[in-house]
Amino acid sequence: MGVKKTPKAASNVARYEEDARQQRIREGTERVNGIFEGNFNPDFFTNRKQSFLDYATPQLEDQRSAAEKELTYSLARAGTLDSSIRANKFGELQKLYDTNKQQIADKALSYETDARNNVENARSGLLSTLNATGDAEGAANSSLSRAAALSAPEAFSPLSQLFASFTSALGTQAAQEKAAAMSGGSYTPKYNTGLFGGNKSVKVLGG
Amino acid sequence: MFVRLALKHEEDAFVAMGQANVAETLEGEPCDEARLRQTFQDYLATARPTIWVVDDFSKPVGLLMADVGEYDYRAGLFVVQKVIYVSPEKRGTRAAVLLTKELIRWANSIGAVEIIGGNDNGFQSDRTAAFLGHFGFRKVGFTMSKRLTD
After folding, report:
1. Phi, psi for residue B62 in degrees, rounded to 5
2. ipTM of the assembly?
3. Is B50 helix (H, G, I), strand (E, B) or coil?
4. Which residues contact residue B29 at a Cβ distance below 8 angstroms, ignoring those fewer than 6 apart?
5. What is the pTM of this model?
6. Is residue B72 part of a domain?
7. Are A78 and A194 a contacting pair, CB within 8 Å?
8. Within a domain: B140
9. How far apart are CA A30 and CA A136, in angstroms?
């Protein structure tokens, strides 16, 4: 859209003031951009993602290791360490691990994206204010403090129990299968993995 | 995404958007790159015209060009909206709205009496009129053109 009407020159004094104002704004914009570019290069955003991965991945591995141990003990108690049940259960665990790993990668990416958006919002706010006020010095000073605040390391929350549903299910299943074994057939669990109880009975020997 | 004054190093981006605008809205009309560059230099040197860009993660994705004039018959200034252009991939975003809001804010800030704008090239005229109507612009007369050379 556009019109070709060419206006007559506005008064020289008014134009001079506007020229000078725009020049101050452009200089202020260059200073704000320089401060932001100096503090927030592409590596800064990549590091935000990597920091979360470095924080979360060891926790994921530790929790996986603990879940594997718990599964192994359960299999050993049931005498099924060398059975197909073992492969199935470890397969389930691996699937859960893969899902959690993907969720951590997604979360890490969101930290990178959020950082980009926060930095851009801050720059946008500073330059919009500069555009309205023409205060280049104030914009530059505000940029320094905003950049410092935005550069502060992100505080992460510890991961929740990522394999809780898996290990909790092992416990529940164990309780149900043991109950079935002890009930002498009057109670049947919905699923019978054979990991717990089975047909074995506990013999109490008295003296 | 926000609007700010165009910066010195954005001359190439301005020229590219200007050429794209002419190609899209004035089909067959010559477009002189040197003239576009001179317009940009005039802006830097004199603020006539004034050029804003839409900044999207530091990339210019739209532009607004406006000028100021004095009435022949009364005191006061008027603002002329000469070009509003948004890159095709950013149409449908807030870009045009942000540009128009900035035009109105700036016109108010310099004490202008009115903004003259609209469309004189036949490109999406009704849509342009409806868009500007949302901001309080009203239709005044007709724009007419008599082509003298070809």
Report:
1. -170, 165
2. 0.89
3. strand
4. B22
5. 0.78
6. yes
7. yes
8. no
9. 10
Mean pLDDT, rounded, of chain A: 82
* Residue (of A15, A198, A7) closest to B79 by Cα position: A7
CATH number at residue B39: 3.40.630.30
Rounded (10°) angle between helices B33-46 and A12-39 = 100
Residue A154, token pair as written in the block: 């992100």
How high does pLDDT run on average in chain B?
93
Does B142 fall in a domain? no
What's the pLDDT tens digit per position in B13-62? Answer: 999 999 999 999 998 889 999 999 999 999 999 999 999 999 999 999 99
Question: Is the Cβ pair A26, B128 closer than 8 Å?
Answer: no
Look-up: residue for tokens 């612009």? B137
Cβ pair A10:B58 closer than 8 A: no
Cα B74 to Cα A3, A18, B69, B113, B114: the distances in Å are 22, 21, 12, 11, 13
- Is pLDDT at B145 greater than 60 in this prediction? yes
Helix, coil or strand: residue A144: helix
- Evaluate whether residue B111 is within a structural domain: yes
Other Cβ atoms within 10 Å of B32 Cβ, number: 12
Q: Which residue does chain B place closest to A120, by CA atoms? A: B57
Q: How confident is the model at residue A176 (pLDDT cuts 50, 70, 90)?
A: confident
**B63 touches B17 (CB < 8 A):** yes
CA distance B109 to B104: 9
Sign of the four-CA dihedral B104, B99, B134, A2: positive
- Is the pLDDT at A169 greater than 90? The verdict is no
Distance from CA of B29 to the nearest CA of A (A): 14
Q: Which residue in chain B is spatially nearest to A18 when comparing CA positions?
A: B47
Q: How many domains does chain B have?
A: 1
Range of the domain at B74: 2-133
